[in-house]
Amino acid sequence: MKIVYSDKKSGKTAQQDVAKEAEGALIGKKIGEVIDGFAIGLEGFKLQITGLSDNTGAPSRFEIEGTRKARPLLSSGPGIRKGESGYRRRRMLRGNTISSDTVQINTVITEYGSKPLEELFKPKAKAEQ
């Protein structure tokens, strides 16, 4: 499982893997809840969950309760691209709760800790060829 965290002020995004031991603390959390960044080594940071993806690539919607999969009829929002007026489609989506099938958790930083942001969003070194 990995957490993608972003900073609205700078517009930068980074991701980090969650240790197997820390995954248990995240299971059961819902979209919109605030979690502690301690699970991924961001002591003092608070992260708000904004979205999820499961192991099949299905995105999640906040309206679908639980961890189940559903095929709602959509016209806009997460899980569907903007179409023409009156355009609606059924899409396979996941519920709003983190489960063992969740692969990616999208979050936004709401409270900042002691680490400077430059250290969090440092660029990756390019692989030498």
Write up what this structure looks like.
This protein is mainly beta and 129 residues long. It has one domain. 9% of the residues lie in helices and 31% in strands. The protein has two helices and nine strands; from the N terminus they run ββαβββββββα. The protein has helices at residues 20-26, 117-120, and strands at 2-6, 13-17, 34-36, 46-54, 69-70, 73-74, 89-90, 93-94, 102-111. A five-stranded mixed sheet has the order 2-1-9-4-3, with no helix packed on it. It has a two-stranded antiparallel ribbon with strand order 5-8. A two-stranded antiparallel sheet has the order 6-7. The longest helix is centred in the N-terminal third of the chain and has 7 residues, at 20-26. The protein is globular, with a radius of gyration of 16 Å. The model has no long low-confidence stretch (mean pLDDT 85).
Rounded average pLDDT: 85
> In total, how many beta strands?
9
Order of helices and strands: EEHEEEEEEEH
Strand order of the largest sheet: 2-1-9-4-3
Structural class: mainly beta
Task: Provide the number of structural domains.
Answer: 1
Poorly predicted tracts of residues: none
Q: How many H/I helices?
A: 2
**General shape:** globular
- Terminal CA distance reads 29 Å
CA radius of gyration: 16 Å
Amount of beta strand: 25-35%
Q: How much helix is in the residues?
A: under 10%
The profile of the biggest β sheet is: 5 strands, mixed
Write the topology of this structure:
Elements: E1 2-6, E2 13-17, H1 20-26, E3 34-36, E4 46-54, E5 69-70, E6 73-74, E7 89-90, E8 93-94, E9 102-111, H2 117-120
Parallel strand pairs: 1-9
Antiparallel strand pairs: 1-2, 3-4, 4-9, 5-8, 6-7
